[in-house]
C-alpha cells in the first residue's frame, strides 16, 4: 500500500514537473500561434469621469447600465482616434501629424507555468533614447522630453522619449470596473495632462500622496476604490486611510501594470512590473532603471566606460538620432563619473541607468525582448502565470480569462498621448477572449 | 322694506316662468332643432378657437416672443440638427415641448402660465439670470419626457424606423428597444446648450425599463463640481 502510494506520488510529481517545464522564449514557434490584429487608438482626455457623464452623450447612459466599451464601439477605434487626435474633441493640445490609431498584431500562448506574448507594431523610428544630460559651460543640464512638454513645444528642447508597450491586467474580481471600462478605470480628470489636475503644492501637501506619504508631485493613474468619493473632476484628494488602502490591495483590489521600455528596460531584456491602486506604483523590490543624477553634486553618477565606447566616456547629440551600441548606460558599460575628465560643451550622457540586477516582485518581467527592424517593433515576452507575489501581481491560471488592456507610446510621447485598446479579455486556452492564448504542449 | 332678491316667493316665480318659457319654446320642434344648431355652432367655434390658440401658443413664433426664449434657447435651436435638417423638416417649439392631442395640450398651456409669470418676474436681458435657471428648467423637461416615455419625440420619430449611421447608434438602438428604454434616457442634451446630468435624473434613467447590470465601480459619482 505504502509502495503504491509512493509510486503514485512519484509519477504525479514527475508529470507535474514535466508539464511545468518552460519553453525557451526564443524557441516558441509563433507561426503556429493564432494572431489577433488590434486597433489601438488615441484617447485624448477621455477619462472615467468623461465616460460616465453627459459629455459622453448616450454612452454615459449605456455605461451606467453596465455596457462595456466594445458593446457600442467595436470596430470604431480608428474613427474615434482620428476624431480625437485632430483636436476636434477631447484634445486641447493636438500633436501635428500624429496618427489617430495604430495596428498591433498580438499573439499569446501559455504553458502550465508561463505566459508568452508577442506584439508587432509599426514604428517609424525606434525611440530607444530617453531624456539625457548635456555639458554646457561647466555644468550638466537635463534636456530632452516628450512632445507636449513646454520646452519641447517651444523648441527649446528636442523631443526625445522612449517607445513603450504596456499591459494592464486584472483578475476579473478585484477591480470590477476594469472589466467594463478597461484602462479608463485608472484614468481621471485630475491626473497630469488632464483638465482638472491640482497644482504641485496641493499634491505635495496631501497626507497620503504628498511629502508625508508616497512623496508624489503630481497625480497619475489611480483606482476609485482607493477613494472615499469622486465627482466630475475625479477624486484624487479623497484617499481612504493607509490601512484601508493596504487592506484593499491585500484583497486583490488593484490592477497589474507591466511596461516594456525601449530605453529603460529593453537593453537588459526586461519590462518593468508595477500596479495601479491609490497611485501607479512599482512592485516591491528593485526595478531595472534609475536616475543617472546625483542630487547632491548636480552631476551624473555614471559615464560610459571609454573602453567600450570608442574611447570616449560620452555621446554626442548626433548619436541620439540612432541606436548606437552605447545608447544606454548598463551594468557592463558604465563607470563612475569622472569630474576631472576634459568635458567640453555638447558632450552628452544619458540620464538613466539600466541594470539587470533586479530584485523581488519588481523584476518579474525579466524575459522581454524588443527588436526594431523594417519600421516595426517586434516584442516577445515571457512571464510567470503566477509570480507568487500576490500583493502586487495578478496570478493567472490556465483555462481562465483575465481582463486586459494594452497601450503603445511612440514618437516621443508620454502619459495620455498614447494609443490604447478598449477593455478586452485574455483567454488562457478557453477561447473566450479577444486575445486567446493557446497552450504550448 | 325687504329687497326683491330676498323674496323666496318671487324667486320661485321667476324659475317657474323660465321653465315655462323654455317648455313653450321647445314645444315647437323647429325651435329645438334651431337651438341644437346654435349650441353645436358655438361649441365648434369654441373648439376651433381653442385649437387655434393651442397651435399658435405652441408655435416657435409665440414662444420666442418672450425674451427668455428668443434670446437664448431659440438661438441654440437654430444651431441644432433639429433646426437644420437635410429634408427641410423643422419642428416648432411645441412639437417637442407641448402635447399634440387637444386636451393634454390645453393642460400644458394652463401649466405653462407659470412660465408667463417667470417671464415678467426676472430680468432675462442678463444671461447669468438665464444660466442660473437653466439646470432646473432642463431637469424639469427631462423628467417630464422620461415620465411620458418621450411622447413628443415619438410623435415624429418611429423608433423601429430610426437608422443610425454609426455602429454605436445601431447597437444602442437595438439594445434600447429590447430593454424598453426611452429616447430621453440617452438623448438628453439635444438642441439646446448642454446641461450636466443631475443625480436624480441619472438614477431615474438607470431605473427605467429593464435595468442593466449597473456601473461596475464601487464608488458612485456624486454631485456636480
How many helical stretches of chain B?
Answer: 11
Shape estimate of chain A: globular
> Helical content of chain A, roughly?
10-25%
Sheet/helix structural class of chain B? mainly alpha
Low-confidence stretches of chain B: none
Q: What are the secondary-structure elements of chain A, in order, as H or E? A: HEHHHHEEEEHEHHHEEEEEEEEEEEEEEE
Spatial shape of chain B: elongated
β-strand amount of chain A: 25-35%
Note poorly predicted spans of chain A.
1-20
Please identify the oligomeric state.
heterodimer
Which bin fits the share of residues in helices of chain B?
A: 55-70%
Distance separating the two termini of chain B: 76 Å
Number of separate helices of chain A = 9
Classify the secondary structure makeup of chain A into a structural class.
Answer: alpha+beta
Largest interface: A-B, 41 and 35 residues
State Rg of chain A: 23 Å
Largest sheet of chain B: none
Overall average residue pLDDT of chain A: 93
Q: What proportion of the residues of chain B form beta strands (DSSP E)? A: under 5%
What does this entry look like structurally?
The complex is a heterodimer of chains A (441) and B (225). Chain A has 441 residues and is of the alpha+beta class. Chain A has nine helices and 21 strands. In chain A, the strands form four sheets. In chain A, strands 1, 2, 3, 6, 7, 8, 9, 16, 17, 18, 19, 20 and 21 form a 13-stranded mixed beta sheet that branches. Chain A is globular. The two termini of chain A are 33 Å apart. Chain B has 225 residues and is an all-alpha fold. Helix content of chain B is 64%, strand content 0%. Chain B is built from eleven helices and no strands. In chain B, helix 2 packs across helix 6 (102-121). Chains A and B meet through helix 3, helix 4 and helix 7 of A and helix 9 and helix 11 of B.
Amino acid at each position: 500500500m505504502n509502495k503504491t502510494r509512493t509510486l503514485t506520488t512519484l509519477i504525479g510529481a514527475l508529470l507535474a514537473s514535466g508539464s511545468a517545464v518552460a519553453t525557451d522564449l526564443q524557441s516558441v514557434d509563433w507561426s503556429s500561434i493564432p494572431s489577433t490584429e488590434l486597433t489601438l487608438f488615441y484617447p485624448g482626455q477621455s477619462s472615467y469621469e468623461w465616460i460616465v457623464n453627459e459629455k459622453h452623450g448616450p454612452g454615459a447612459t449605456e455605461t451606467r447600465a453596465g455596457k462595456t466599451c466594445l458593446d457600442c464601439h467595436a470596430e470604431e477605434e480608428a474613427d474615434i482616434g482620428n476624431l480625437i487626435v485632430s483636436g476636434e474633441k477631447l484634445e486641447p493640445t493636438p500633436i501635428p501629424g500624429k496618427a489617430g490609431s495604430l495596428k498591433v498584431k498580438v499573439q499569446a500562448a501559455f504553458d502550465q507555468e508561463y505566459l508568452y506574448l508577442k506584439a508587432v507594431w509599426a514604428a517609424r523610428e525606434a525611440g530607444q533614447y530617453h531624456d539625457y544630460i548635456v555639458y554646457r559651460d561647466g555644468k550638466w543640464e537635463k534636456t530632452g522630453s516628450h512632445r507636449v512638454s513646454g520646452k519641447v513645444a517651444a523648441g527649446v528642447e528636442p523631443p526625445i522619449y522612449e517607445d513603450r508597450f504596456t499591459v494592464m491586467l486584472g483578475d476579473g474580481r478585484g477591480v470590477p470596473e476594469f472589466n467594463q471600462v478597461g484602462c479608463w478605470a485608472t484614468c481621471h480628470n485630475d491626473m497630469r495632462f488632464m483638465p482638472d489636475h491640482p497644482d504641485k503644492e496641493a499634491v505635495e501637501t496631501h497626507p497620503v500622496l504628498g511629502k508625508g506619504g508616497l512623496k508624489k508631485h503630481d497625480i497619475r493613474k489611480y483606482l476609485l476604490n482607493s477613494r472615499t468619493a469622486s465627482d466630475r473632476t475625479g477624486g484624487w484628494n479623497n484617499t481612504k486611510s493607509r490601512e484601508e488602502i493596504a487592506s484593499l490591495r491585500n484583497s486583490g483590489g488593484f490592477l497589474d501594470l507591466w511596461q516594456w521600455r525601449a530605453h529603460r528596460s529593453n537593453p537588459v531584456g526586461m519590462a518593468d512590473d508595477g500596479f495601479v491602486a491609490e497611485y501607479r506604483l512599482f512592485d516591491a523590490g528593485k526595478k531595472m532603471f534609475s536616475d543617472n543624477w546625483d542630487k547632491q553634486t548636480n552631476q551624473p553618477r555614471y559615464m560610459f566606460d571609454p573602453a567600450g565606447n570608442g574611447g570616449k566616456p560620452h555621446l554626442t547629440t548626433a548619436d541620439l538620432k540612432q541606436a548606437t551600441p552605447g545608447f544606454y548606460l548598463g551594468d557592463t558599460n558604465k563607470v563612475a563619473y569622472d569630474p576631472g575628465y576634459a568635458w567640453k560643451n555638447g558632450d552628452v550622457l544619458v540620464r538613466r541607468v539600466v541594470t539587470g540586477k533586479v530584485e523581488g516582485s519588481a523584476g518579474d518581467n525579466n524575459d522581454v525582448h524588443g527588436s526594431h527592424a523594417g519600421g516595426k517593433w517586434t516584442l516577445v515576452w515571457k512571464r510567470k502565470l503566477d509570480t507568487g507575489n500576490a500583493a502586487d501581481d495578478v496570478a493567472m491560471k490556465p483555462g481562465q480569462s483575465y481582463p486586459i488592456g494594452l497601450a503603445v507610446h511612440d514618437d516621443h510621447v508620454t502619459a495620455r498621448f498614447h494609443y490604447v485598446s478598449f477593455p478586452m479579455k485574455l483567454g488562457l486556452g478557453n477561447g473566450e477572449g479577444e486575445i486567446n492564448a493557446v497552450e504550448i504542449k | 322694506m325687504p329687497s326683491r332678491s330676498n323674496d323666496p316667493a318671487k324667486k320661485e316665480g321667476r324659475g317657474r316662468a323660465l321653465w315655462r318659457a323654455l317648455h313653450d319654446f321647445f314645444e315647437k320642434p323647429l325651435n329645438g332643432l334651431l337651438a341644437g344648431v346654435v349650441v353645436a355652432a358655438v361649441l365648434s367655434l369654441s373648439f376651433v378657437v381653442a385649437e387655434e390658440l393651442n397651435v399658435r401658443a405652441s408655435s416657435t413664433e409665440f414662444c420666442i416672443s418672450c425674451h427668455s426664449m428668443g434670446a437664448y434657447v431659440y438661438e441654440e435651436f437654430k444651431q441644432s440638427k433639429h433646426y437644420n435638417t437635410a429634408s427641410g423638416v423643422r419642428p416648432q417649439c411645441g412639437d417637442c415641448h407641448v402635447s399634440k392631442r387637444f386636451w393634454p395640450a390645453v393642460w400644458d398651456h394652463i401649466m405653462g402660465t407659470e412660465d408667463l409669470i417667470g417671464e415678467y418676474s426676472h430680468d432675462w436681458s442678463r444671461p447669468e439670470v438665464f444660466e442660473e435657471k437653466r439646470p432646473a428648467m432642463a431637469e424639469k423637461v427631462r423628467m417630464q419626457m422620461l415620465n411620458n416615455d418621450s411622447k413628443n419625440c415619438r410623435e415624429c420619430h418611429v423608433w423601429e424606423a430610426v437608422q443610425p449611421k454609426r455602429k454605436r447608434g445601431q447597437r444602442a438602438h437595438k439594445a434600447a428597444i429590447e430593454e424598453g428604454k426611452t429616447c430621453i434616457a440617452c438623448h438628453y442634451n439635444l438642441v439646446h446648450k448642454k446641461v450636466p446630468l443631475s443625480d436624480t435624473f441619472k438614477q431615474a434613467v438607470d431605473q427605467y425599463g429593464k435595468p442593466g447590470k449597473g456601473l461596475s465601480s464601487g464608488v458612485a459619482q456624486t454631485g456636480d463640481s
